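One such shown below:
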Amino acid sequence: MKRRKKAFAIWLLLIAVLLVGAVAVQPAASHGTVQSVLLDAVNHHTNRVSLFGLMNVNPGMISAFVITGCMLLFALVVRLFVIPRFKTVPHGFQLILEESVRLFDQQAKSASPHKNRTLGAFLFASGSYIFISTIFELVGIQVITTHGVSIPLPAPLADLNGALAMGCLAYLFILISAVKNNGAKGLAHALQDFLMPLSLSLPLFGALLCGLLMTELVYCFIRMSFVIPVIVAVMLTLVHALIQTYAFATITSLSYGECMHHEDGETHHEDN
């Protein structure tokens, strides 16, 4: 009982501190209107970054290069030094890794009972990239724009080009797999879903842009810019990372399963 009262008193004290700070601290100065922030988030005409002095690119492209390089390096280290030491009874990092692989593998098997091993690997790779690239903006790595302004690197999928590239990659994977396994029939079926890149990429881009809008509204119109924006940004980012990873993997696996569907009623064995 005493512990509960003590914990309750601590929570009240924290809430009081936050309220005092929210009232005492002036609202954070915005670097532009909400409209200008969202417009630059789409076209990146203002905040552009120099790529090794060769050209000016969107900051999302720099984020994509950094995330891809870090993920490849991490995968190499895990493959060479961690996986050979795996034990029969998993725990710790081994358990997390195996459960993640199993989750995407089961989704691939449920959507496509035949020819699903490649699909499981693609879902795991793309899902990991979407999740990591979404929470990457929480790191807050600073870069200098061409105008000499310091900005944090955004999530790559917050750029419409990055989201479209992700959707086109999934469609290309399904198209190649359909041709490889079902020939002309698979190609014809895959070509019917030519709008799938849009159905995959637009939700990714729209969700992250919505998170940016809500965070910017908190900064601009709510006086409690002392701690509230940080909480809102973290919660929205984590929720978007989970939802978009699940949505992308689900749509991709279902589209793949439709292209791998056999109408002859023959029995096919799983791809080994």
About this structure: Confidence is low (pLDDT under 50) at residues 25-31, 262-272. The first strand starts at residue 49 and ends at 51. The chain has one domain: 29-259.
